């Protein structure tokens, strides 16, 4: 990633509104052609970050670079960046084609050339032939596409999207997720995508940056974030986790390997996910275990010794829920309640006859133990 | 509560409804019957009001050929036109300027704007009259002095006339325009201007291509309302109009002192037609805009409910 040119860079960017710090010392480098997502709960500063890139807000400190150039003092209308606004912001007094051609006309592209490029952009978002329609007559999904075409027609260096699918219903949102991803691939433009939906970020992005209270928590590929979350917040925000309180026994910074005691002196082994962390022995840590990493079997399962993994704990099913593709079990154990999920694939599937109140055995391998220091 | 009394109340329900409906009907009759009568009698073929003798356009013909009535009508149109033009231009600019000042300052000016609308016409009439008398008393000697010194002959004398009526009308109709435009500006989606900046339009081009078209309904409505208020104002015009240049309401009032003729009914009906046309146009403009904004209800036209976001 670092070898490729960065389209957008934020260097130590801080944004304050009065005394309130909306974004704090943010450092990101967005490589050319990446689908880059800003992920975090509402109010964590995602929109503010986007607005600083677009030029609607100025950083209180730090620097924004677009295509390698510092853009401090460059007004929004001179930045080669386009935005798809959260509520689309289509001009109601213009038809679809005039909306899409708006950016072109400001650069003096008019008449035949404008028409050709507008048609091209509309075809790209599969709205061919709708140029003469009024924007308010279109459905939410179509308006969304018009907003997209209006931005893409200008071939910006970076396309900024602020929760563009937020107003759509679930089914349409899923469709648009795939379509947006494919579109980004096709046009090769860098996308900076804001969302509070972790699933959306995971399915669409090349790189995700997780934010909380204006601070970057972690950035990396969706897989990195899911498999090696560096702290409790990231582990909890992306997917589900079982959190077990523990105490660190030893830690090898070179490999990340760690020994931890959980519960009543139960010794387990895992890895400290944050490569920067240097916890001292005896420190309080959290061990996160993903539900799908838990093995469950009947209490009397003879094969448990071989398949359950190094850590095993007896429990009792409190609740069993059928989720369609999965079954979820909530199990009371000495370590607290554990959530386990089993895929309903052939050969796997539910444990027949195991329901609430039944004794079970829960186990997992050492690789599943994510030792979180913060 | 006993079952019997509850049943009695249940039976009373429809009666209560009926009483309220009858009351509402009476109120509307009370409001509109007099106006209806004026229109009805304007088509009277007979020569006396209060005695209907067949339908004819005789009195309209009479009114349209009445040199004094038509002169007054023309004065009213001229005053209304200039009032609308000036009030709309100044009011819109003022509203745009107010958008750029700190909220606290804006609140003060908003209050002043509402007050300007509420001030009774008679106060505006007296105040502007005193102002003009003083102004002319101060300016005319200077003109006299300058003209005499330069040897230009007889000096011009500025006095009351249609222009003073326009000035007084602009005073309060401008406030109406401001309220309408301010409401529209406050309700305008800020992301539209940002989208325009985002799509490379400079601030000036954004104003022309996005802001102004968004304001158009409010500006049109403001112009029509300013015209309407000016067109049927009697009180203020009476104070500041020049001699021998009455507006139509002034003319009507002075003719009534000589007795109500069917001609007056015809003129009043025509005034009513002009006013209603203007107001219906305002309504239509706002309906269209509301449809564009994807709302179902038309924007509140009542000036009092115009609020700030
Ligand atoms: N113009 C502003 N003035 C004051 N506070 C603001 C302004 N814009 C955003 N904020 C605050 O900054 C924080 C981050 O906002 P935002 O970037 O919109 O969050 P997100 O998009 O992640 O939901 C919020 O607490 C918000 O209230
Ligand atoms: Mg936001």
Structure, explained:
The complex is a heterodimer of chains A (374) and B (309). By secondary structure, chain A is an alpha+beta fold. Chain A has ten helices and 20 strands. Chain A has a six-stranded mixed sheet with strand order 6-7-8-3-9-10, sandwiched between helices. In chain A, strands 11-12-13-20-14 form a five-stranded mixed β-barrel. The longest helix of chain A has 18 residues, at 170-187. Chain A is elongated. The two termini of chain A are 27 Å apart. Chain B has a single domain, classed as MetI-like (MetI-like fold). In chain B, helix 2 crosses helix 11 (262-292), helix 7 (190-198) packs antiparallel against helix 8 and helix 8 packs antiparallel against helix 11 (262-292). The A-B interface holds A 54-56, 75-78, 81-83, 85-87, 89-93, 102-103, 106-107, 134, 136, 150, 154 and B 189, 191-192, 194-203, 205-206, 209-210, 213-214, 291-294. Bound molecules: adenosine-5'-diphosphate and magnesium ion. Adenosine-5'-diphosphate (ADP) is lined by residues 17, 20, 22, 40, 42-48 of chain A. Magnesium ion is lined by residues 46-47 of chain A.
Short structural description:
Chain A has 374 residues and is of the alpha+beta class. Chain A has 10 helices and 20 strands. Chain B starts with a helix and ends in a 17-residue tail after the last helix.
SSE topology:
The complex is a heterodimer of chains A (374) and B (309).
Chain A: E1 6-17, E2 20-31, E3 35-39, H1 46-54, E4 61-66, E5 69-70, E6 81-84, H2 96-100, H3 102-106, H4 111-124, H5 140-152, E7 158-162, H6 170-187, E8 190-195, H7 198-204, E9 207-212, E10 215-220, H8 222-227, H9 232-237, E11 242-251, E12 257-262, E13 266-272, E14 284-289, E15 295-298, H10 304-307, E16 311-322, E17 326-333, E18 336-343, E19 359-364, E20 370-372
Parallel strand pairs in A: 3-8, 3-9, 6-7, 7-8, 13-20
Antiparallel strand pairs in A: 1-2, 1-4, 4-5, 9-10, 11-12, 11-14, 12-13, 14-20, 15-19, 16-17, 16-19, 17-18
Chain B: H1 3-42, H2 58-64, H3 67-98, H4 103-118, H5 121-150, H6 162-187, H7 190-198, H8 203-231, H9 235-240, H10 248-256, H11 262-292
The complex binds adenosine-5'-diphosphate (ADP) and magnesium ion.
The site of adenosine-5'-diphosphate (ADP) has 11 residues of chain A, from strand 2 and helix 1.
